[in-house]
Amino acid sequence: MQTLNRAYFEALDRDDPLAAYRDQFDLPAGHIYLNGNSLGVLPKAAKEKARQVVEEQWGQGLIRSWNTHDWIRIPQRVGDKIAGLIGADDGEVIVADSTSVNLFKMAAAAVKLNAGRHKILSEPGNFPTDLYILQGLEQFLDGQVRLVTEHRDSILDAIDEDTAVVVLTHVHYKSGAMFDMAAITARAHEKGALVIWDLSHSTGAVPVELNRVGADFAIGCGYKYLNGGPGAPGFLFVAKRHQAQLQQPLSGWFGHANPFAMRDDYEAAPGIARTLCGTTPVVGASLLEVGVDIMASADMHQIREKSLRMGQLFIELIEQRCSQYGFGLASSKDPAVRGSQVSLTHEQGFAIMQALIARNIIGDFRAPDILRFGFTPLYVRYVDLWDCVDALVDIMANDHWDQAAFKKLTAVT
Amino acid sequence: MQTLNRAYFEALDRDDPLAAYRDQFDLPAGHIYLNGNSLGVLPKAAKEKARQVVEEQWGQGLIRSWNTHDWIRIPQRVGDKIAGLIGADDGEVIVADSTSVNLFKMAAAAVKLNAGRHKILSEPGNFPTDLYILQGLEQFLDGQVRLVTEHRDSILDAIDEDTAVVVLTHVHYKSGAMFDMAAITARAHEKGALVIWDLSHSTGAVPVELNRVGADFAIGCGYKYLNGGPGAPGFLFVAKRHQAQLQQPLSGWFGHANPFAMRDDYEAAPGIARTLCGTTPVVGASLLEVGVDIMASADMHQIREKSLRMGQLFIELIEQRCSQYGFGLASSKDPAVRGSQVSLTHEQGFAIMQALIARNIIGDFRAPDILRFGFTPLYVRYVDLWDCVDALVDIMANDHWDQAAFKKLTAVT
């Protein structure tokens, strides 16, 4: 292993084909932001978009903007753009509601499509809201289905003829561990089960090829790697072959075949639009579009390459410079099964992360002992990794951390 | 009946105690906007709020703003402010999701609370998304409950011992007709049924006293009279006495007792927060707060008084000046059962409304023949009514309307 130094990282930045993207984002001065896996940063163009949507479209256009600014088609339009990022076709992805609400719709629909089967399969330690939503569905259906969680190492074997749907997060929020989407989808189909992939930590971070692996359903988050803004709407994917049969219980008027006919009886829209529920959150969805546009203009393979190199270099830096400080590695060293983040463990992880944040180096902490560092190739520089670890060395070597000194940061993934 | 003229309306504006509110809104020049019952207008302060939330809170604060700008408490904080507008207490109202999603949560919860009863009661012609959501629930619960619709004149008699929950819109979106909330709630309770009131066309428009009438649940819209912006989040109300028992199926992580402990098992938050699902839509909810703040600063009785006077005068103007043109009145002349709008019927209603809109007088049309005129006392002037009817007279007298000349406006209530 070569000995790393700052000049080496500077050189990587000079050669980085994605380097120019950083200028499209408005980062706070003097910050190193390694938390784009939790909340992405502000695209500069989103400032003008917010002004346009609020002042012109809403303020001046008022109700007419549903047509004149095509508010009515935002869910489909932005959905089609996201489709291009995850290997889906036009008309298979739509922007709506939150990730949690979208999971409820997809899981309820999958259970109906696979009626007679009794098992929803997931893993313990999946992102909490996924498990909570599935528990809500289980309770609501009063024993028709039950949620079973199996450790990821035995998940393939746990898929059986009684499995209605498998619900897994492609890239794990804590460890960054990545499932083999193709293998699990294939096994599920072999057993007659459906799969819902949660792409919250994948979309815009790692290549995803939903149709290549024959995926059924997916959901994802707008405010992480897509840089859509805090609490941006989520999205969902339904493979074309499932759309005509799909029934989802949140059958609000925006999912109606003819919403403005104002009829008494629900009739599902013919395609992906049947997954919509209430009125589109116009401002949030418009800001999301800005982030999606930037991501869609970038080369996902360059993103993945830079992300993996960053992960690799970060691990090497920790090994070379922090070996004596008691950190563990919670992410795999194998890039094939690692998303766009590296997680360390340390028993004083919370206090250490607070000390980094106090220096405007922002990663995050996940109980009980995980420090997460997210690598978002469009705006994080290689040299940021050097500077981050340099600060970490100083913090550890000089005891610049103190649990009592920092108020607990409410962590939001 | 006195003969009305423009000077009379100008005098009313001079004496209007609410007149100064108009200056808090950014109305397009030369427009008369009588569609605030569909999409409210832009508060001037929302422009600066959008800039702050996007540029400072998101752009500079990033993930830290969940604490430093208290994003985490937005649903409760704005909910408490709305509570003051509808006769609820602190901790009984929360901002979340859309009106449609919130109805699903409330209806599902009510059916569970009243398990063993089989009927969800509503009226035909209720706002479509309400019926669609109830149909989705019915289908999803596979025959456990069925939706029954009864004409509003016989709704009281239709509430029986098998009724789990009554779901009605307090002020009707088309006619503006207003239910007697106290009488229906009392009858429902007498029969052991629960009631969900949809306050979409009530909140900020007419006085509502949820706790005085002993209401159980309510939902409402953020983008109409609350001026929260297009697709603003909705809100919901759960009476304190129901909160501890309430189970709702959209049990996402924001409704967890301790969301950031990231545990595998759902545990509902103790109070109203258990009705939350996914991550708060920060930008939309922040803009909603601006509109709510303005509404909360106004005197609801003055609003109601002006609204009723406007309705009365509008009807008189139509009677005095348009009697020969074939308009019918779809709203009641009795102010006690009329919300903050007056609806007319005309067989050429669509074309007539388009002709008004072409003159920047914006009401809206609801199939098959309804012209809706909404009166929002905080920014509509008395003289606007005169000018609206004056334009209408010109349109009718001189045939300045032509169905073919206007592209259909997609109407969004």
TrEMBL record, chains A, B:
GO molecular function, one term: kynureninase activity
Catalytic activity from the UniProt record: 3-hydroxy-L-kynurenine + H2O = 3-hydroxyanthranilate + L-alanine + H(+); L-kynurenine + H2O = anthranilate + L-alanine + H(+)
Keywords associated with the record: Hydrolase, Pyridine nucleotide biosynthesis, Pyridoxal phosphate
Cellular component terms (Gene Ontology): cytoplasm
Positions bound to pyridoxal 5'-phosphate: 99-100, 127-130, 169, 198, 201, 223, 253, 279
Purpose: Catalyzes the cleavage of L-kynurenine (L-Kyn) and L-3-hydroxykynurenine (L-3OHKyn) into anthranilic acid (AA) and 3-hydroxyanthranilic acid (3-OHAA), respectively.
Subunit description: Homodimer.
Protein name: Kynureninase
Gene: kynU
